[in-house]
Design a protein that fits this description.
Blueprint lengths: L2 H8 L19 H12 L4 H13 L1 H15 L3 E4 L7 H12 L4 H8 L8 E9 L7 E8 L5 E2 L6 E5 L5 E6 L6 E4 L15 H25 L3 E5 L5 H17 L9 E5 L3 H24 L15 H39 L7 E4 L4 H16 L6 H11 L14 H6 L12 H18 L7 H7 L3 H11 L5 H18 L5
Antiparallel strand pairs: 1-10, 2-3, 2-7, 4-5, 5-6, 8-9
């Protein structure tokens, strides 16, 4: 290593400062929250984004529920699903590995899922020349765009450009699909971003929860501790003064010294019943936040049943949570495919079909129901089509393929066994007659309506494996042992007599 290189490594590099607006949640009341929303509606969303950040990072309940919402998707295994007959398995595997090895991949997904609550999330794509075989460019970084850099002053989404140190330079950039990912993961697609998305519904409940918390603490400070009541002789002002001094010193000395003719009583306020109202109000506000974010409350608070027992209530709310998770995964997969994979395919000139991203599969309860439905359908003589198999794989989060048809017992042995040794000078009529007589009942059965296609199957088969697969397809419900016996006898009679089967 050169001395100059070592020196450069020892000299601290300039730190790029990421500017972040100051917190404003400590100044909020109902009027200020309303003003933030009105300002957002007019296109100035700076205070809205600052308050939303303060709510998520400063309120434990909101942070916990929002984390659950995102972990339900990114906590599942990531994969790229493609049809088995497309012949691009090697490319799909290489692209999957590329994303898994990208350090900024998971933070970018986490930021994109912020838009399940925020109105929109934006991530910048940075490419670099690739050294991979068959690749022109690959992703170097997926960089989340901070929310305070989003601008709506022109009436549409723009991005505020920054200098190298993170400060804004006054320029606005349109989010070009080649360079940026724009994700809206909520259901309020018909409302403008400036209305705040689902976060708008959280803000007032957050205010009620935090304000109630402060009011509750003030109530406990005032009425939670016992207080002293002193009695003194009205005719003696000195007794009153001594009693007041004793009360003042009691907080420091943890005791009190009074004249013998004075009387002091300690009273405890009924703070428990008074605090129940604050507790119930705080619980209501947190439950409403849970409903907005994760669609249910059982994951954060165990509740008694009412009309439903606790198990039934939990199962019903779990289905709601699964619906939300599936939509989040579907919306993220759509954005990932159209705004990441499609441009990656285009700049590399790949012609192979573009796969679909997936994150895990159904819940264990849903998988069990799907498996039961598939088993009943299979018992009813139905089978999955190629498209149905893809949907089955996507639902379970696993990759299945069709197993090769099992060989019918006896046919392979018949093909491998050598024919009986015959005297070339004799036609072997006795042996042929014996074979024909033994196979006569089975040949008769082959002529009926059930086994009538047997002859055409035998005559059209090009190999033993072809015959086996056609027999399995034509007679799926026939006992395999019986079908094998019929096929062996028919083939033997045909081979020995050198005639058609019938």
């Amino acid at each position: 290593m050169k001395i100059i290189d070592l020196f450069r490594r020892l000299v601290p590099a300039r730190t790029i400062i990421r500017y972040e607006p100051a917190a404003i949640s400590q100044t909020m009341d109902a009027g200020r929250v309303g003003a933030v929303l009105r300002s957002s509606e007019s296109g100035n969303m700076d205070d809205f984004h600052s308050l939303a950040r303060d709510i998520i990072t400063g309120h434990g309940h909101t942070l916990s529920e929002f984390s659950k919402r995102k972990l339900a998707v990114i906590g599942k295994p990531f994969s790229l699903a493609t049809k088995a007959d497309l012949g691009n398995a090697a490319l799909v595997e290489a692209v999957t590995t590329h994303f898994e090895d990208l350090p900024s991949f998971l933070p970018a997904l986490t930021h994109l899922l912020d838009s399940t609550l925020y109105p929109v999330s934006v991530v910048q794509k940075i490419y670099k020349p690739s050294t991979r075989p068959g690749w022109r460019y690959e992703l170097d970084e997926l960089r989340p765009v901070p929310y305070h850099l989003l601008d709506y002053s022109t009436g549409s989404l723009m991005i505020r450009a920054t200098n190298a140190d993170g400060g804004q330079n006054g320029q606005l950039i349109a989010p070009d699909p080649i360079a940026f990912i724009v994700h809206r993961g909520h259901l309020l697609q018909s409302t403008p971003d400036t209305w705040g998305g689902p976060m708008r519904a959280v803000m007032f409940w957050w205010l009620f929860a935090t304000q109630d918390r402060d009011w509750w603490i003030r109530f406990l400070e005032r009425f939670g501790a016992p207080f002293m009541v002193g009695k003194y002789d009205e005719t003696s002002p000195e007794s009153r003064m001594l009693l007041e001094r004793a009360f003042s010193a009691a907080t420091r000395l943890f005791g009190i010294a009074i004249p013998s003719d004075a009387d002091v009583q300690i009273h405890q306020a009924n703070a428990t019943q008074g605090g129940d109202a604050f507790s119930a109000f705080h619980k209501t506000a947190c439950n409403e936040i849970s409903k907005i974010i994760v669609g249910q409350t059982t994951s954060s608070d165990v509740q008694s049943g009412g009309g439903l027992n606790s198990g039934g209530q939990a199962e019903a709310q779990s289905e709601v949570r699964d619906d939300i998770r599936q939509y989040d995964a579907m919306a993220l997969a759509s954005t990932f495919r159209t705004q990441i994979l499609v441009p990656l395919w285009q700049i590399n000139g790949w012609t192979a079909p573009i796969p679909t991203p997936t994150w895990g599969g159904q819940s264990f309860q849903s998988i069990d129901k799907i498996s039961q439905a598939y088993e009943r359908s299979k018992n009813g003589g139905l089978e999955l089509t190629d498209e149905g198999l893809e949907q089955y794989n996507a639902a379970l989060g696993l990759t299945f393929r069709r197993a090769p048809a099992a060989a019918l017992p006896g046919l392979s042995a018949l093909a491998a066994s050598p024919p009986p040794t015959e005297n070339p000078s004799t036609p072997g009529r006795a042996a042929c007659d014996q074979i024909a007589q033994a196979g006569a009942p089975a040949l008769v059965e082959a002529l009926n309506a059930t086994l009538s296609p047997l002859r055409d199957i035998v005559m059209s088969s090009t190999s033993l494996s072809d015959l086996e697969s056609k027999l399995m397809a034509a007679f799926p419900n026939l006992d395999h042992t019986r079908a094998t016996e019929v096929a062996i006898l028919s083939l033997t009679a045909n081979a020995r007599n050198a005639t058609d089967l019938y």
